[in-house]
Design a protein that fits this description.
There is one protein chain. The strands form 3 sheets. A 5-stranded mixed sheet has the order 2-1-3-10-4. A 4-stranded mixed sheet has the order 6-7-5-8. The chain has helices at 2-10, 53-63, 79-86, 109-113, 159-165, 173-185, 202-216, 220-227, 238-249, 255-258, 266-272, 284-288, 290-294, 298-302, 338-348, 351-361, 390-393, 397-411, 417-422, and strands at 41-47, 69-75, 95-98, 146-151, 153-158, 192-193, 279-283, 307-310, 321-322, 324-331, 387-388. It has 19 helices and 11 strands. 45% of the residues are buried.
Length: 429
């Protein structure tokens, strides 16, 4: 399966899907309406985004088939805490945003109980166009969430700056440490940067989390102990925490310089676009915001440069593509206009349309034909053994929360590695 996935990651294909059950001629994308195109109805989508241009583009396309269907997106304040209640109200959304970490948590039980099984063959969704390793299926095979975007952890690289300084972009951990030393000698106080404030070393999490997952992906005992929050599970964090400590000790990242950034999103992106940051740790969500902010950056507008997002080379074999769903959709099985809602989901779950949404949002597509935005191109070049997914090997969010606290503590100097290892399972969520 990993060989198939890797081949898909490197490929640039467009798959045409052939619909059924309608006399309407197929569109160039292969979609054929199943319902009367004069169908009326209302499809409301709820989420936490301030704006959702990528989804609105799909509304417009769907409206070409069903012009009498009203579609809208609504941002809910305090989304994670209110969605369960909103779904029980009189004006409940048809489609709502969900996340893999909601699985198994009592606070989100009502939200997931309201979700339709999207794996039902009668719905006709083309699930085969999605990467199976990021599908969150229940134990009985139900699919309550459909990944709309995927994301990963890595670092933005200023390609022009490396060329200016006559340095090669590192491909191994040894090379990463070496190039950081060379950059410091050239006057860069923090060759690698990232959000680092309020005693939380968020940047280091993007460095070590893929490494941590790579170290346990094929160790079922480790995953079992970590998921059960057994104290002994803390030992499996040690190699990743040692990596974080070594990275700091070698001066690859300067916490004081990083702490000058005000927040973990807008400030980080605009700081990178200043053009004097060689490498910036972050997530695909950070990358998602770069395109829009290029025009907002006076420095970038005056002196644009080439950059891309790549796996952090944390081993002598390189880095990892940590493949995880970023945002997922669930369908409210109790909503009004359920039939046309499911028709929209059948329209949306398509290789070409999901890839188009990902390109608009500048996130990774959840489909097998990962037509990468060029900014993500390095991830498509990794061999199959470097592609890992927590959804596939079963690491749950409770364990990740414990690991995150350990990384924050070690990164901020609040605890040593032994204390972090012994504290596993006891950190407050």
């Amino acid at each position: 399966m990993k060989k198939i996935l890797c081949a898909a990651l490197a490929a640039f294909m467009l798959i045409s899907l052939v619909g059924c059950g309608s006399a309407t001629p197929a569109s160039p994308g292969g979609f054929q309406p199943r319902l009367d195109t004069n169908t009326t109805g209302r499809i409301r989508v709820a989420g936490s985004y301030n704006n959702f241009e990528a989804l609105e583009a799909m509304f417009e396309q769907f409206g070409q088939y069903y012009p009498n269907v009203e579609m809208s997106f609504t941002k809910l304040d305090d989304y994670n805490n209110v969605i369960g209640t909103v779904l029980q109200g009189n004006d409940a959304p048809n489609i709502y945003v969900t996340y893999s970490w909601m699985n198994g948590r009592d606070a989100y039980k009502s939200a997931l109980d309201s979700a339709e099984n999207l794996a039902d063959p009668a719905l006709g969704l083309d699930l085969d166009c999605l990467r199976p390793n990021i599908l969150n299926k229940t134990e009985n095979g139900e699919l309550l969430m459909i990944p709309v975007f995927s994301s990963t952890q890595g670092m933005l690289v200023n390609q022009d700056l490396f060329e200016k300084e006559g340095l090669a972009v590192p491909e191994t951990y040894t090379e990463l440490v070496s190039v950081c030393e060379a950059l410091r000698e050239k006057g860069y106080r923090s060759p690698v940067m990232g959000y680092y404030a309020d005693n939380h070393s968020f940047a280091l999490f993007s460095l070590v989390y893929p490494y941590f997952c790579g170290s346990i992906a094929n160790n079922t005992d480790a995953v079992s102990q970590l998921n059960a929050l057994e104290p002994a599970g803390g030992e499996f964090m040690r190699p990743a925490l040692e990596l974080a400590s070594d990275f700091l000790d070698k001066g690859c990242i300067d916490p004081e310089v990083c702490a000058e950034m005000e927040n973990d999103y807008n400030s980080v992106i605009l700081r990178f676009l200043e053009g004097d940051v060689p490498m910036m740790l972050g997530t695909g969500d950070i990358v998602s915001g770069t395109k829009k902010r290029e025009a907002q950056s006076e420095a970038f507008s005056a002196h644009p440069f080439s950059y891309y997002f790549m796996p952090v080379p944390t081993t002598e074999d390189g880095g990892y593509f940590l493949d995880t769903p970023s945002l997922e959709f669930s369908v409210n099985k109790n909503c009004d206009d359920l039939e046309i809602t499911n028709e929209f989901m059948r329209f949306l779950v398509d290789s070409q349309r999901l890839s188009e949404m990902a390109q608009i949002k500048r996130l990774v597509s959840p489909t097998k034909d990962l037509s990468f935005d060029s900014v993500y191109a390095p991830f498509g070049k990794l061999p199959p053994e470097r592609v890992i997914s927590p959804e596939e090997f079963g690491l749950i969010d409770d364990a990740v929360v414990q690991f995150r606290h350990a990384v924050y503590g070690v990164g901020a100097g609040e605890m040593d590695i032994d204390e972090a290892v012994l504290g596993f399972g006891s950190f407050k969520a």
